Amino acid sequence: MQRETALLPGRKMRRRRRRADLGTIAFRRCVLAVPIVGGVSLLVFLLAGISPFDPLAAYLGDRYVQATVDQRQQLSEALSLDTSWYQAWWQWVVSALSGDLGHSRVFRQPVTTVMSERLPWTLLVAGTGLFLAMVVSVLVAVRCAHRPGALLDRTMGCAATLLQGLPPFVISLGLLAVFAVTAGWLPGGGLTDPGAGISAGQVARHMVLPVLATTLSQLPWLVLSLRASMTGVLGSDAVRGARLRGLRERTVIHKHVLPSALAPFIAVLGSRLPEVIVGAVLIETVFSWPGLAAAVVSSAQALDFALLAALTVMTTMAVLAASLLADLLYVLIDPRVTADA
After folding, report:
1. Residue 190: which region, alpha, beta or left (left: phi > 0; alpha: psi -120 to 50)?
2. What does the angle CA 308 – CA 310 – CA 312 come to, to the nearest 5 degrees?
């Protein structure tokens, strides 16, 4: 009883220290995020300013040739295209801080409206695909860890190594060719069938191939990472000691190996988010999915810099937030990691 009482202050101190480490890491990352986000937004407008493309020509399309010089001048003034890039950036920053992200020329809507309408569809596909990749990678890695060097372990290692060399658009085109064009089992693109309304069944059928493409594009990296981590933990003294104590192999894997291997796995998962976003751009374009990634392509093609800047800043903030979350989970899982490490 006295021993348990003596341990309580030590546990409380460790918990307080852990909470302090989490708060320190979060504070440092938030402070660091301010200049990063500001620099990214500034870079977008700088590249827009030195771009050889004329945003007015992109906005008018074929009507640009028919418009007179006076009409072009008046339209440029109305769209604020005649201001310098740094003035445009500062005006955008001031408006963004007040909640106004500007107006999208290509979608003829406020930027906030475009983002609110398309963000749920992007989160649905990218989030579902990444979640499935996480679940499958854990199941496969645990199964391979039970019998290292067996047929399943060698097969999954070869398949993952081969699959990681394929870009997301190649995977998307392959799935499209097999399941939509050749077999005709699944729709090849869009959110619903032509003329059909939005329903759970329609959306579920049309999101199968984009989700599968997202899962397959991320699965090899996660499988190989977790498999390598578990292989390293299997050779540790702690695992050998657990086996010498007569614990079952399943208990050793689930209670000792997997928790220790999850820390580097989470770090890899956080670092993969930028590629998930880049892959989403390609996947949504191939499957004509009405998400934010497709809006990035449209805004870049039409030189819609208000929308492009907002999407770029939001993507940067999402990457920073995912990196912060991965680091916080890493600290929670591994007690050896501190804020000063």
Report:
1. left
2. 65
In whole angstroms, give the CA distance from residue 138 to residue 143. Answer: 8
Those residues whose C-beta lies under 8 Å from the C-beta of residue 148, and which sit 6 or more positions away, are 231, 234
Closest alpha carbon to 212 in 268, 131, 309, 144: 131
For the chain, the average pLDDT equals 79
Which residues have CB under 8 Å from 186's CB, separation 6+? 179, 180, 205, 208, 209
Listed residue (232, 236, 231, 229) closest to 266, CA to CA:
229
Whether domain 16-333 has CATH 1.10.3720.10: the reply is: yes
pTM, two decimal places: 0.77
Domain boundaries, the chain: 16-333
What pLDDT does 142 receive? 78
pLDDT tens digits along 23-65: 787 888 888 888 998 888 888 888 877 776 666 666 666 666 6
Q: Decide which of 93 and 264 is more confident.
A: 93
> What are the tokens at 118?
């398309």
Residue 141, class by beta-carbon neighbours within 10 Å (0-12 exposed, 13-18 middle, 19+ buried)? buried
Which amino acid type is present at position 30?
C
Rounded CA-CA distance 49/81 in Å is 10
Q: Which residues of 82-103 are buried (b: 16+ CB within 10 A; e: fewer)?
A: eeebeebbeebbeebeeeebbb
